[in-house]
Amino acid sequence: MKKRGDAIVLIGFMGAGKSSVGRTLARLTGLGRFDTDEMIANRFGLSISEIFEAQGEEKFREAETETLRELVGRGQAIIVTGGGIVLRKENVDLLRELGAIFYLSADEDTLFARISRRTTRPLLQTADPRATLKELLAARLPLYRSAADVEVDTSRLKHEEVARKILENLEDDDRGKVNAEG
Ligand code: S3P
Question: Is 47 left (phi over 0), alpha (psi -120 to 50) or beta?
Fold first, then answer.
């Protein structure tokens, strides 16, 4: 098995708060932040919706994998991913190589309330976005859970509280390692 890196990796459904928690973690730790959606949008010079429209979802998914490959070996950082990153097994292997994977979860009502504030998510521009959310969530839940090292339910937490939980978890983990080593 490949060595696990030092990054803090955030995965989870649209509306789970990955971007905001990622920013908070970067502020609290002083580490650099890489957001795969932002990197892809910069690479194409287009918004995510425009990429889906002009190039199709498959091109976007390829760009996600390429972006993760570029991030491997960059060391300690905060890595924020798009909600569909777990759809490819290769991506999950790359995320494991990058670092500790935190799955930010939330209940369906909370996700829908958060997502409804914006119309920037191409996958939810359907006749019945709530039904689409339910379907996508059911299909992805097992993928998030099997990829994750730790799940944090964000439904009733502020971004800062989620970030602190993640940092506490890493500290506990380090303490565990020190104890195990002697
Ligand atoms: C997607 C989630 C989006 C973005 C794209 C596809 C998905 O990111 O990558 O619209 O498949 O769930 P967020 O999770 O940041 O909204």
Answer: beta
Check pocket membership of 14 for ligand 1, CB cut-off 6 A.
Answer: yes
- Dist. CA 60–CA 64, nearest whole Å: 6
- Our answer on whether the CB atom of 33 is closer than 6 Å to any ligand 1 atom is no
Residues 6+ apart with CB under 8 A from 162: 17, 21, 24, 104, 152, 154
pLDDT, tens only, 61-90 = 999 999 999 999 898 999 999 999 999 999
Contacts of 150 (CB under 8 A, 6+ apart): 100, 101, 102, 103, 166, 169
* DSSP codes joined into one string, 84-127: TGGGSHHHHHHHHHHEEEEEEE--HHHHHHHHTT----GGG-SS
Tell me if 48 CB under 6 Å of ligand 1. Answer: yes
87 lines ligand 1 (CB under 6 A): no
> Is this prediction's pTM over 0.85?
yes
What spacing in Å lies between the alpha carbon of 181 and ligand 1's midpoint? 40
Q: How far apart are CA 136 and CA 106, in angstroms?
A: 14
How far does the centroid of ligand 1 lie from the alpha carbon of residue 49, in Å?
A: 10
Report the C-alpha gap between 174 and 6 in whole angstroms. Answer: 12
- With a 6 A CB cut-off, is 35 part of the ligand 1 pocket? no
